[in-house]
Specification:
alpha+beta, rod-shaped, 20 strands, 5-stranded antiparallel β-sheet
Length: 295
């Protein structure tokens, strides 16, 4: 029995010695305590699962699982966790070291959905130039952002019906191609200042029709006048005069060259003179009546 125990002890001692001779590099924890001895050629750092850091120099750390056991964290233990972290970016994002920033080339379609309450703002934009810069527009069909130069956008517009475009300037002036109404009232009036003086001997006048349409008339048309001469019959009291105004102040009646008195010898209505003889005179056959009018 004693010989048997001695043999077992001897075998264990030989095995331990063999193991000790197999390793040539020390495994030291971060407290300086020797933990293990490994074959090694390159310096490595491994971490025990209780977060204790060990400095080792394994020949090939991936082949030491049987020697290290499960008490240490190896690369294979962390590769699945590290796979979830970013090591590259794209489609409008840029990575520099551990920093991720907006900016870069889009490699696929990108959509940002906004709402009335969750809208997008870009602040701090510098002032642009209408002659050199472009304008951002949105495709109404799909919301795609596009750009168009300011000059092309302006040139795409047409100006007519009294407006004229020269270069990038639009001015009042041109041909009307449809009926145009400017409505005014007692507060919002239309004024044209700086008009030059006119000449009634050569210029025309601007007038309005019953519906407010502006028209021009020649100076001869401003004052209308007429004259009618008749030979009366005995007792005739009515003289018809076309286009004559109703106002007696614009009508003059003569009997045989003598002027009659308005309101006493005659009265007027539009287109009609009514004679009112008195005891001083009567309408005789062959009397010459002359009616003159102006309006």
């Amino acid at each position: 029995m004693k010989q048997y125990l001695l043999l077992v002890g001897l075998l264990l001692l030989i095995g331990f010695t063999a193991n000790a001779q197999l390793d040539s590099t020390k495994v030291v924890d971060n407290k300086g305590t020797i933990k293990y001895v490994l074959k090694a050629t390159n310096s490595k750092i491994i971490t025990q699962k209780d977060s204790l850091t060990l400095y080792v120099t394994p020949k090939q750390l991936s082949n030491l699982e049987n020697e290290i056991g499960t008490d240490y964290v190896k690369y294979a233990d962390t590769s699945s966790m590290l796979a979830a972290y970013l090591n590259s970016v794209g489609n409008g994002l840029t990575k520099s070291g551990k920093s991720l920033a907006l900016g870069g080339t889009l490699s696929t379609n990108a959509t940002i959905v906004t709402s009335e309450s969750n809208f997008m703002q870009i602040r701090g934009l510098t002032s642009g130039s209408t002659s050199a810069d472009s304008v951002m527009v949105v495709d109404p069909a799909n919301g795609t952002l596009k750009w168009i130069s300011a000059s092309k956008l302006f040139n795409a517009l047409t100006f007519e019906n009294g407006l004229t475009k020269t270069g990038n300037t639009v001015r009042l002036g041109g041909t009307l191609n449809q009926a145009t109404t400017i409505t005014t009232d007692g507060t919002n009036v239309l004024k044209i200042a700086g008009l030059q003086g006119g000449n009634l001997g050569a210029d025309s006048l601007v007038v309005t029709s019953s519906d407010g349409t502006l028209k021009k008339v020649n100076r001869e048309s401003v004052v209308q006048s007429g004259e009618v001469k008749i030979s009366a019959s005995l007792g005739q009291t009515t003289i018809t005069v076309a286009n004559m105004p109703a106002l007696a102040s614009k009508v003059w009646v003569f009997r045989n060259g003598a002027k009659l008195v308005a309101g006493e010898d005659y009265s007027t209505a539009a287109g009609t003179v009514t004679l009112t003889p008195t005891v001083d005179w009567a309408v005789l056959a062959g009397d010459i009546f002359e009616v003159q009018w102006v309006k």
